[in-house]
Write a structure and sequence with these properties.
Helices cover 68% and strands 2% of the residues. The chain has 14 helices and 2 strands. Strands 1-2 form a two-stranded antiparallel ribbon. About 2% of the residues have low confidence.
């Protein structure tokens, strides 16, 4: 006798979640919970923008506002339009401060960046004992107080008792009064700035170089490329973004040099020399604002300085865009 097995019941399909509801044992999330998830990222970044609005954006806009007035903090405040900017254009002291600022920036930035690039390249290829210790010591000038650095260098460049003039005397060169010479005062302040930022810039370059695979240099050496060709065709192209970054940040910092010339000109701190030999734009701004109480005119100087910084930022954007397009 032949038997036949009957098929069992078919398994029912799992219930589907309602349309628009999230999958999960707890069922669909409430609308309030989903709204909180959307708002949370904005609440995380809100403190930065609030602080920027209070301490960055508002002072900037208020500076533009004050520049349109003859603003005396203890006197009258008269609206004069763009007269402060017209006066600024015809003021020889402003152009002298601009030349001094650009000269000090060039003397401090260009040698510093070139020397930092070469030293980083050497440290990346030469094996040293206690390499970590030497890299750490490069940050000592950066963390040292600017006031302490300036005082020490001012003593070194002193006309009568300075170490540099003593060394020049050994080779028959007479003493140099650095604060009474435009070129010499620029060299003195540029040396202070370069010494402070040299180690920091070197570490930036070194960190970028260590991200380049060693195999790249080894392959170039196998192909017959020497050290100079490797530096020019591998190191420089690989460091283009960080080089642009350091150039732009050094330029912005160079346009805002203040403490070094203020402390270097001990007898005439606001003018940095008897005839404004090393007075920078920020020092000229401080002199007009807090020395002469002409806040409107000082604000116009600040607006001009801001315009210069914006130009540098635009150059950085154009260079970065060009590099990305080449890649």
């Amino acid at each position: 006798m032949r038997t036949r097995t009957l098929p069992g019941p078919r398994p029912s399909a799992p219930p589907t979640a309602p349309k628009g509801a999230a999958a999960g044992a707890d069922g669909p999330r409430p609308v309030r919970h989903r709204l909180a998830e959307r708002i949370a990222p904005y609440s995380y970044i809100a403190p930065f923008f609030l602080l920027f609005a209070v301490f960055g954006l508002f002072p900037l806009l208020f500076t533009f506002y004050i520049a349109l007035f003859d603003w005396n903090p203890i006197g009258d405040r008269t609206f004069i339009g763009f007269d402060n900017f017209t006066r600024l254009w015809d003021d020889g002291r402003f152009w002298n401060a601009t030349r001094n600022t650009l000269s000090i920036w060039f003397l401090s930035t260009v040698p510093q960046l070139l020397a930092a690039l070469l030293l980083a390249h050497l440290l990346n290829h030469v094996r040293l004992r206690f390499a970590g210790f030497f890299r750490m010591t490069m940050l000592v000038p950066y963390i040292t107080s600017v006031a302490a650095t300036t005082i020490v260098f001012a003593q070194m460049f002193d006309r009568d008792y300075g170490l540099l003039n003593w060394l020049l005397g050994l080779v028959g060169v007479g003493p140099i009064n650095f604060l009474q010479s435009t070129g010499a005062s620029h060299v003195m302040i540029a040396t202070m700035v370069a010494w402070r930022w040299f180690g920091y810039t070197t570490l930036l370059y070194l960190a970028s170089l260590q991200a380049i695979p060693r195999e790249t240099y080894e392959a170039a050496a196998v192909d017959g490329a020497g050290g100079l060709k490797q530096f020019w065709h591998i190191t420089i192209p690989s460091l283009r973004p960080i080089i642009i970054f350091t150039v732009v940040t050094s330029t912005i910092g160079g346009l805002q040099i203040f403490t070094e010339p203020l402390l270097a000109g001990r007898a005439t701190p606001l003018t940095c020399g008897p005839t404004r030999e090393c007075q920078t734009l920020t020092l000229f701004l401080y002199e007009q604002g807090f020395g002469g109480y002409e806040f409107g005119y000082a604000a116009a100087i600040g607006v001009a300085l801001f315009a210069m910084i914006v130009v540098i930022a635009l150059i950085n954007y154009l260079l970065s865009t060009r590099i990305r397009s080449e890649r």
